[in-house]
Amino acid sequence: MYRLLIVTEKQSVRDMFEGMSGWEVMGFKQPRLRATTEEAIACMEKHHIDAIAMDPGEAFADLNAHVEQNCPTMLRFEVEENPEEQLKTIRLLDRLLNQIRADHSNDLYDENNALQYTRDRQLKAVLSGLVPTRKELNARLRMLRCPEQGDVPCIVARLGLDEDDPFLTDRWHYGSDRLEVALRNFFGGEQPHMLVHVAVVSQDEVRVLCYPRQAEALEEAAVRTFIEEVAQQVENYMGLRMKVLDVQSVPGLCTFARECSAS
Length: 263
Known about the structure:
By secondary structure, the protein is an alpha/beta fold. It has 11 helices and 9 strands. Helix 5 (83-101) packs across helix 6 and helix 5 packs across helix 7 (134-143).
Protein backbone atom coordinates (compact mmCIF):
# COMPACT_ATOMS: atom_id res chain seq x y z
CA MET A 1 0.00 0.00 0.00
CA TYR A 2 1.14 3.53 -0.74
CA ARG A 3 2.07 5.94 2.03
CA LEU A 4 1.25 9.64 2.04
CA LEU A 5 2.61 12.49 4.14
CA ILE A 6 0.62 15.70 4.61
CA VAL A 7 2.45 18.61 6.21
CA THR A 8 0.16 21.45 7.28
CA GLU A 9 -0.35 24.07 9.92
CA LYS A 10 -4.08 24.23 9.15
CA GLN A 11 -6.43 22.41 11.47
CA SER A 12 -9.11 22.38 8.77
CA VAL A 13 -6.82 20.35 6.51
CA ARG A 14 -5.98 17.95 9.31
CA ASP A 15 -9.68 17.54 10.07
CA MET A 16 -10.45 16.85 6.40
CA PHE A 17 -7.88 14.08 6.07
CA GLU A 18 -8.76 12.56 9.43
CA GLY A 19 -12.42 12.52 8.38
CA MET A 20 -11.78 10.76 5.07
CA SER A 21 -12.26 6.98 5.08
CA GLY A 22 -11.68 4.09 2.72
CA TRP A 23 -7.94 4.59 2.38
CA GLU A 24 -7.10 0.88 2.27
CA VAL A 25 -9.76 0.27 -0.40
CA MET A 26 -8.02 2.94 -2.52
CA GLY A 27 -4.63 1.30 -1.94
CA PHE A 28 -3.23 3.68 0.70
CA LYS A 29 -2.26 3.52 4.33
CA GLN A 30 -3.88 6.15 6.55
CA PRO A 31 -1.93 9.34 5.70
CA ARG A 32 0.59 10.64 8.21
CA LEU A 33 -0.06 14.23 9.31
CA ARG A 34 2.75 16.51 10.47
CA ALA A 35 2.81 20.21 11.39
CA THR A 36 6.48 21.25 11.12
CA THR A 37 9.45 20.78 8.81
CA GLU A 38 11.36 18.97 11.54
CA GLU A 39 8.51 16.52 12.13
CA ALA A 40 8.12 15.90 8.41
CA ILE A 41 11.83 15.19 7.82
CA ALA A 42 11.91 12.87 10.84
CA CYS A 43 8.90 11.02 9.41
CA MET A 44 10.55 10.62 6.00
CA GLU A 45 13.73 9.31 7.63
CA LYS A 46 11.78 6.72 9.61
CA HIS A 47 9.13 5.67 7.06
CA HIS A 48 8.98 5.13 3.33
CA ILE A 49 6.82 7.89 1.82
CA ASP A 50 5.44 7.63 -1.73
CA ALA A 51 3.94 11.13 -2.05
CA ILE A 52 3.88 14.36 -0.07
CA ALA A 53 1.66 17.42 0.16
CA MET A 54 2.45 20.57 2.09
CA ASP A 55 1.06 24.05 2.66
CA PRO A 56 2.20 26.50 -0.03
CA GLY A 57 4.22 29.58 0.84
CA GLU A 58 7.35 30.31 2.85
CA ALA A 59 6.38 28.35 5.96
CA PHE A 60 7.70 25.11 4.49
CA ALA A 61 10.37 26.49 2.14
CA ASP A 62 13.08 24.46 3.87
CA LEU A 63 11.02 21.30 3.63
CA ASN A 64 10.34 21.96 -0.05
CA ALA A 65 14.10 22.37 -0.64
CA HIS A 66 14.78 19.15 1.27
CA VAL A 67 12.33 17.19 -0.86
CA GLU A 68 13.69 18.64 -4.09
CA GLN A 69 17.27 17.78 -3.16
CA ASN A 70 16.94 14.49 -1.32
CA CYS A 71 13.74 12.82 -2.55
CA PRO A 72 13.88 12.97 -6.37
CA THR A 73 11.29 10.24 -6.98
CA MET A 74 8.76 11.20 -4.30
CA LEU A 75 5.57 12.41 -5.93
CA ARG A 76 4.00 15.74 -5.00
CA PHE A 77 0.29 16.56 -4.78
CA GLU A 78 -1.96 19.43 -3.78
CA VAL A 79 -4.24 19.81 -0.78
CA GLU A 80 -7.74 20.50 -2.12
CA GLU A 81 -10.50 22.63 -0.63
CA ASN A 82 -12.96 19.79 0.06
CA PRO A 83 -12.99 15.99 0.45
CA GLU A 84 -14.61 15.36 -2.96
CA GLU A 85 -11.87 17.20 -4.85
CA GLN A 86 -9.24 15.63 -2.63
CA LEU A 87 -10.52 12.17 -3.50
CA LYS A 88 -10.18 12.96 -7.21
CA THR A 89 -6.56 13.94 -6.60
CA ILE A 90 -5.90 10.79 -4.59
CA ARG A 91 -7.37 8.58 -7.33
CA LEU A 92 -5.14 10.28 -9.92
CA LEU A 93 -2.18 9.84 -7.60
CA ASP A 94 -2.99 6.14 -7.28
CA ARG A 95 -3.03 5.69 -11.08
CA LEU A 96 0.35 7.37 -11.48
CA LEU A 97 1.92 5.42 -8.63
CA ASN A 98 0.62 2.19 -10.17
CA GLN A 99 2.28 3.12 -13.46
CA ILE A 100 5.58 3.90 -11.76
CA ARG A 101 5.57 0.66 -9.75
CA ALA A 102 4.63 -1.49 -12.75
CA ASP A 103 7.31 -3.77 -14.19
CA HIS A 104 7.86 -2.41 -17.71
CA SER A 105 10.92 -4.47 -18.63
CA ASN A 106 13.00 -7.51 -17.78
CA ASP A 107 15.71 -5.31 -16.24
CA LEU A 108 16.10 -4.77 -12.53
CA TYR A 109 13.57 -2.22 -11.29
CA ASP A 110 14.97 1.30 -11.21
CA GLU A 111 12.70 3.95 -9.70
CA ASN A 112 14.29 6.84 -11.60
CA ASN A 113 13.80 5.08 -14.94
CA ALA A 114 10.26 4.08 -13.98
CA LEU A 115 9.44 7.69 -13.09
CA GLN A 116 10.84 8.96 -16.40
CA TYR A 117 8.90 6.29 -18.30
CA THR A 118 5.70 7.45 -16.60
CA ARG A 119 6.51 11.09 -17.37
CA ASP A 120 6.92 10.19 -21.04
CA ARG A 121 3.57 8.37 -21.03
CA GLN A 122 1.81 11.32 -19.43
CA LEU A 123 3.31 13.84 -21.85
CA LYS A 124 2.16 11.62 -24.70
CA ALA A 125 -1.34 11.73 -23.22
CA VAL A 126 -1.09 15.52 -23.05
CA LEU A 127 0.09 15.88 -26.66
CA SER A 128 -2.63 13.46 -27.77
CA GLY A 129 -5.32 15.64 -26.16
CA LEU A 130 -6.37 12.91 -23.72
CA VAL A 131 -6.24 14.94 -20.49
CA PRO A 132 -9.70 16.39 -19.80
CA THR A 133 -8.98 19.61 -17.87
CA ARG A 134 -6.28 22.19 -17.27
CA LYS A 135 -6.43 21.42 -13.56
CA GLU A 136 -5.79 17.71 -14.07
CA LEU A 137 -3.05 18.41 -16.61
CA ASN A 138 -1.24 20.65 -14.13
CA ALA A 139 -1.81 18.09 -11.36
CA ARG A 140 -0.21 15.32 -13.44
CA LEU A 141 2.84 17.46 -14.23
CA ARG A 142 3.21 18.46 -10.58
CA MET A 143 2.70 14.96 -9.17
CA LEU A 144 5.39 13.54 -11.44
CA ARG A 145 7.67 16.53 -10.75
CA CYS A 146 8.02 17.20 -14.46
CA PRO A 147 10.25 20.17 -15.33
CA GLU A 148 7.55 21.17 -17.82
CA GLN A 149 4.76 23.46 -16.62
CA GLY A 150 1.35 23.90 -18.16
CA ASP A 151 1.47 27.65 -18.82
CA VAL A 152 4.97 28.12 -20.28
CA PRO A 153 5.06 28.94 -24.03
CA CYS A 154 6.58 26.10 -26.05
CA ILE A 155 6.68 24.78 -29.61
CA VAL A 156 4.97 21.68 -30.99
CA ALA A 157 5.80 20.15 -34.35
CA ARG A 158 3.46 17.83 -36.24
CA LEU A 159 5.03 15.29 -38.59
CA GLY A 160 3.01 13.17 -40.98
CA LEU A 161 4.00 9.62 -41.81
CA ASP A 162 3.96 8.90 -45.54
CA GLU A 163 0.53 7.40 -46.29
CA ASP A 164 1.99 5.64 -49.35
CA ASP A 165 4.51 3.86 -47.12
CA PRO A 166 2.67 1.87 -44.40
CA PHE A 167 5.80 1.80 -42.25
CA LEU A 168 4.10 0.91 -38.98
CA THR A 169 2.01 -1.94 -40.39
CA ASP A 170 4.29 -3.45 -43.03
CA ARG A 171 7.94 -2.73 -42.19
CA TRP A 172 7.96 -1.92 -38.47
CA HIS A 173 6.77 -4.79 -36.30
CA TYR A 174 7.42 -3.44 -32.81
CA GLY A 175 4.47 -1.12 -32.18
CA SER A 176 4.17 2.63 -31.60
CA ASP A 177 5.85 2.53 -28.17
CA ARG A 178 9.05 1.09 -29.60
CA LEU A 179 8.89 3.55 -32.49
CA GLU A 180 8.70 6.39 -29.95
CA VAL A 181 11.81 5.06 -28.24
CA ALA A 182 13.64 4.88 -31.56
CA LEU A 183 12.59 8.41 -32.55
CA ARG A 184 13.49 9.69 -29.07
CA ASN A 185 17.04 8.44 -29.66
CA PHE A 186 17.22 10.58 -32.79
CA PHE A 187 15.64 13.73 -31.37
CA GLY A 188 17.33 13.43 -27.97
CA GLY A 189 15.54 14.16 -24.72
CA GLU A 190 17.68 17.18 -23.90
CA GLN A 191 19.10 19.80 -26.22
CA PRO A 192 21.16 22.84 -25.13
CA HIS A 193 18.13 25.16 -25.07
CA MET A 194 15.16 22.83 -24.89
CA LEU A 195 13.68 19.58 -23.65
CA VAL A 196 12.28 17.37 -26.41
CA HIS A 197 9.45 14.82 -26.19
CA VAL A 198 8.19 12.56 -28.97
CA ALA A 199 4.68 11.10 -29.18
CA VAL A 200 3.31 8.81 -31.89
CA VAL A 201 -0.30 9.93 -31.62
CA SER A 202 -1.72 7.87 -34.50
CA GLN A 203 -0.76 5.61 -37.40
CA ASP A 204 0.02 8.67 -39.51
CA GLU A 205 1.14 11.43 -37.12
CA VAL A 206 4.04 12.10 -34.78
CA ARG A 207 4.16 15.14 -32.49
CA VAL A 208 7.34 16.61 -31.06
CA LEU A 209 7.26 18.95 -28.07
CA CYS A 210 10.11 21.43 -27.72
CA TYR A 211 10.08 23.04 -24.28
CA PRO A 212 12.47 25.88 -23.32
CA ARG A 213 15.09 25.16 -20.67
CA GLN A 214 15.63 28.88 -19.98
CA ALA A 215 13.31 31.83 -19.60
CA GLU A 216 13.86 32.93 -23.20
CA ALA A 217 11.27 31.76 -25.72
CA LEU A 218 12.33 29.34 -28.42
CA GLU A 219 12.57 30.57 -32.00
CA GLU A 220 10.21 28.81 -34.39
CA ALA A 221 12.65 29.01 -37.30
CA ALA A 222 15.46 27.39 -35.32
CA VAL A 223 13.16 24.66 -34.03
CA ARG A 224 11.84 23.97 -37.53
CA THR A 225 15.41 23.58 -38.81
CA PHE A 226 16.16 21.16 -35.97
CA ILE A 227 13.01 19.13 -36.67
CA GLU A 228 13.68 18.95 -40.41
CA GLU A 229 17.30 17.89 -39.88
CA VAL A 230 16.33 15.10 -37.48
CA ALA A 231 13.51 13.95 -39.78
CA GLN A 232 16.10 13.62 -42.57
CA GLN A 233 18.36 11.59 -40.27
CA VAL A 234 15.45 9.28 -39.44
CA GLU A 235 14.80 8.72 -43.15
CA ASN A 236 18.48 8.08 -43.84
CA TYR A 237 18.94 5.53 -41.06
CA MET A 238 15.49 3.97 -40.65
CA GLY A 239 13.89 4.50 -44.02
CA LEU A 240 10.93 6.23 -42.35
CA ARG A 241 9.81 9.31 -44.25
CA MET A 242 8.16 12.00 -42.14
CA LYS A 243 6.81 15.22 -43.62
CA VAL A 244 6.86 18.29 -41.37
CA LEU A 245 3.23 19.41 -41.39
CA ASP A 246 3.64 22.42 -39.13
CA VAL A 247 5.77 23.89 -36.36
CA GLN A 248 3.77 26.17 -34.07
CA SER A 249 4.25 28.10 -30.86
CA VAL A 250 1.57 27.42 -28.25
CA PRO A 251 0.87 29.40 -25.06
CA GLY A 252 1.44 26.31 -22.95
CA LEU A 253 0.72 22.61 -22.62
CA CYS A 254 -2.65 23.46 -21.07
CA THR A 255 -3.90 24.28 -24.56
CA PHE A 256 -3.96 20.50 -25.20
CA ALA A 257 -6.49 19.87 -22.41
CA ARG A 258 -9.76 18.72 -23.96
CA GLU A 259 -11.72 21.51 -22.32
CA CYS A 260 -9.46 24.06 -24.07
CA SER A 261 -9.42 22.42 -27.50
CA ALA A 262 -13.21 22.09 -27.41
CA SER A 263 -13.78 25.80 -26.70
